[in-house]
Write a structure and sequence with these properties.
The chain is mostly helical. It has 2 domains: about 230 residues, Orthogonal Bundle (Helix Hairpins), CATH 1.10.287; about 220 residues. The chain is built from 15 helices and 2 strands. A two-stranded antiparallel ribbon has the order 1-2.
Length: about 475
């Protein structure tokens, strides 16, 4: 009877630790999260209101731009632009507060999961010790030590239960470890979002100062007179020659004049239908983000199973030494636990480039296409953007909000945000997508000047 009592005691003691943990932990978690959940909802409500105000400012800017270039409209547009930027800064503060709470909660989840894993490890150790003790006793010894046959069968049943709980605990540890990987990935993403938003916030503050200075200089130069504004407007319009010589920098792809970059974009546009100005804006934004573009070796930066095998295969086909300076890729953010590995001006990771390789080759004729070749990079951006512009989520977003902002602006904003953040696009629609569309519209003006100049020159060239 002593052995049987011991086994029952051991079984319930061993079972108790993980069961009690699993039972009480979620309840404690619910109580712990109640306050933060209410706070999160409040932040989301405030954020939604600020986003509505941002859309209103955007609509106001578009209205004044559409009404024509007058001093009054320009000042009103600049005021709306300043108001929009200030509202975006407030929204970014809320985004950061929300992210900080999400980071804290994710860290708490990681701690709970690690504690749960530790509890199951302790239980497994005890299960194994019990099984070891039972194995040391021979079958005949156990039979002889029990006074009643029912006690013997009770002993056998308890050993079986211990074995089953050992199996269950091992399975639970496997599941918890998988959860832990997901939770740590989420934590890395949220930390990266926080860093991005802080950088964007600094840019927004600088933008407010720049726009305010622009407005002050305009008022000072014109002294409030429309005639003076029209003179300044004529003087400051850039000529086609100035646009042609402007440098369009692409880190990882060398330096291009705006005209040369436009030529690459035109080829990509003719094959995909994505407007040249948007392709230029995406590449301009990707190249100038400053996120460790092209400084690291694939060996330390790249995801080992998702990206490395294809990367090495691609470089072999391109005849490029993977350890050369030419094949450098974006660096990981080690503090976040995230991988780098983005290649060339378009900043594609290898697994994404693999998906689009054939389409890129169809556009440029380069087979295999190279992420470090400018024409291939422009084509890659265009074919990827085409898919994003055609996505159901972007179409739904544009359709739902088209009464506030133009459908084209909305769908391009969504696609640009997806280009950068993938499934996390909605969070970046204002902070990444909107500046890309704004830049694209500025490039559209330059392109218009180039086209006008080309049409003026064509008859003169023909007459010769």
């Amino acid at each position: 009877m002593k052995r049987t009592v011991f086994i029952y005691f051991s079984f319930f003691a061993l079972l108790g630790a993980p069961v009690l943990f699993a039972y009480y932990s979620p309840i404690a978690s619910v109580y712990a999260q109640t306050g933060s959940e209410e706070e999160r909802r409040a932040l989301e409500g405030q954020l939604a209101e600020l986003e509505r105000q941002i859309e209103e400012h955007e609509a106001t800017i578009a209205k004044y731009r559409a009404e024509g270039k007058t001093l009054s409209n320009e000042i009103s547009a600049l005021n709306a632009k300043i108001a929009k930027a200030n509202t975006q800064i407030k929204a970014l503060n809320l985004e950061l507060a929300k992210l900080n709470e999400e980071i804290n909660e994710t860290q708490r989840q990681i701690n709970r999961t690690e504690n749960n894993i530790g509890s199951h490890k302790d239980a497994i150790g005890k299960y194994l010790r019990d099984l070891y003790e039972s194995d040391r006793a021979g079958l005949m010894e156990v039979i002889l030590s029990e006074r009643e046959l029912s006690d013997f069968f009770g002993y056998i049943e308890n050993v079986t239960l211990v074995q089953e709980n050992l199996r269950v605990s091992l399975a639970e540890i496997t599941r918890l470890r998988e959860d832990l990987v997901v939770q740590k990935d989420q934590l890395a993403t949220k930390k990266e979002d926080t860093e991005n938003f802080r950088r964007i916030q600094e840019a927004q503050k600088s933008s407010v100062q720049t726009t305010q200075s622009q407005k002050n200089k305009l008022l000072q130069a014109t002294k409030g007179k429309e005639s003076e504004y029209q003179k300044i407007l004529t003087q400051t319009q850039q000529s086609a020659a100035q646009i042609r010589t402007r440098i369009f920098q692409l880190l990882g792809g060398g330096e291009l004049t705006f005209e040369a970059a436009y030529d690459y974009a035109k080829l990509a546009e003719s094959a995909t239908g994505v407007r040249s100005a948007l392709i230029l804006a995406i590449l301009h934004r990707e190249s100038l983000l400053g996120k460790n573009v092209g400084r690291c070796s694939y060996a330390t930066a790249m995801h080992p199973t998702r990206d490395k095998p294809y990367f090495l295969d691609l470089l072999k086909r391109l005849g490029i030494d993977p350890d050369s300076e030419f094949a450098k890729v974006s660096c990981p953010i080690s503090s976040h636990g995230s991988y780098g590995g983005a290649m060339g001006p378009a900043q594609f990771i290898p697994s994404t480039w693999k998906i689009y390789e054939a389409k890129i080759a169809n556009v440029t004729g380069n087979n295999p296409p190279s992420p470090w070749n400018n024409s291939d990079a422009f084509a890659a951006t265009a074919v990827y953007m085409k898919d994003l512009l055609d996505s159901s989520s972007c179409k739904s977003y544009a359709e739902a909000n088209k009464n506030q902002v133009s459908y084209q602006t909305l769908i391009e904003r969504c696609a640009a945000a997806k280009y950068y953040a993938g499934g996390n696009w909605y969070k970046y629609r204002f902070w990444y997508g909107d500046p890309v569309v704004t830049q694209a519209n500025e490039f559209e003006k330059d392109i218009s000047v180039l086209r006008t100049n080309a049409s003026v020159l064509s008859p003169a060239i023909t007459s010769r």
